[in-house]
C-alpha cells in the first residue's frame, strides 16, 4: 500500500490508540506514506467506539484510512521477531501509548534505535515525555481543563464550557505529523519527536494567553464575541443566527454605510470605542439584524466585502458547495461496512486533495500478507492464526 504523494516510499509503523497517533499516521498516509498499524489481538480501542455500521466503528474509520492492519499478540516470541523486522525496515515509528507501555512492548526509543539507528521516533504523550506530570494519564477534557481552555470558553452568564470536539487529540496528531515530515527531510535521519497533547491546546490559544500575559489577570469569557474586536460575533437574524466579523475601522465604515446608519459610524469610530461600548453597539445592531432573515444579511453584507456567514449544522456544512468542491467528504467502499463517508483532508497539493484512496482496514486485514513480507513462512503463519496469536480478516 502507500500513496503517490510527497511521502511516497516512506514506511511508517504506528502503535496507536483512539485518535492522536492514528490521526498523525493517517495524515502521513494522506501524504503518500505507507502506514502499518500494529494492533493488539483485540484491536485499537477506537474499534469499540460507536456509532457502528455493519458492526464496524465509524469512529475508528474517521482516523484510520490508508493503513494496513497487522494484528498480533505482542507477547509471543514469533510476533516479537516479526515486529523487530518491521521496525528495521521502517522510516518512522509513532505511538501514543501511555507512559512506559511502549517500553514494555519492546519498542521504546533505545530498543528501536538498536534495530534501526536512523528511524524517526515520535512519541505523543499526555503532558510530556518527562517532567512532574510525565506519568499522569490524560484525555481531551483533562487537557482542555488544565490548559485554561475551559476557563475561557462559554458565555459569561452561563459558566465555562468544553470545546465540542476533542481538540487536543487532533492538534497533537497534526503537530506530530508536521514534526515527523520535517525530520524526514533531514539527512542523515534519526530525530526523536515528542508531542504533548496539553501543550498543543495551550499553544493554539496563544491569543488568549497574550491577554493574560499583558494584564496578569484571567481574561473574561466572551461567548461568541472576540476579546479584541467589536462587533465580531454571532448575531440573531429574524429566522436564524449568522456570524459577522468587523476587523478594521474600514470594515466598520462599510457596515454602517451598508446599513445606512451614519450615526453608528460617528458614535463608534475606532475599535477602541467599539470595545468600550460593545454592549450598547451590539444591542443596536441586534435590533437591526432581527428585522430580516439571515440569508438577507449574509448576502447584503457579503456583497459589501465583509466577513459574514451562516451558522450551519454539521450536515449542512458537510454538504456545503465549497466543502464538496474541496472534497471534505470522502466515501469509501469498506469490505464489511459497505459505503462509508469520512471527513476528507484539509490539505491540497498540486490542486488535488491530499488523501489516501484506500478504506480504513478491518482488524488484521493485512496480517497474512505482512507476515509473509516480514519473513514468516506460510505454515507458521497458519499456526499463529490457529493459536489466536495473529488475527486475520
Question: Which terms would index this structure?
Answer:
single chain; 2 domains; 17% strand; seven-stranded mixed β-sheet; 16 strands; Rossmann fold; 393 residues; formyl-coa transferase, domain 3; alpha/beta
Topology, pairings included?
Blueprint: E1 11-15, H1 20-30, E2 34-39, E3 52-53, E4 56-57, H2 58-61, E5 67-72, H3 77-89, E6 92-95, H4 101-105, H5 109-115, E7 120-125, H6 140-146, H7 149-152, H8 167-184, E8 192-196, H9 197-204, H10 206-215, E9 232-236, E10 241-245, H11 249-258, H12 262-267, H13 271-276, H14 278-289, H15 294-303, E11 308-310, H16 314-318, H17 321-325, E12 329-334, E13 338-343, E14 348-349, E15 352-353, H18 367-373, H19 378-386, E16 390-391
Parallel strand pairs: 1-2, 1-6, 2-5, 6-7, 7-8
Antiparallel strand pairs: 3-4, 5-16, 9-10, 10-11, 12-13, 14-15
Can you describe what's shown?
This protein is 40% helix and 17% strand. With 393 residues, the protein is an alpha/beta fold. The strands form five sheets. The chain has a seven-stranded mixed beta sheet, sandwiched between helices. A three-stranded antiparallel beta sheet has the order 9-10-11, with helices on one face. Helix 6 (140-146) crosses helix 9 (197-204).
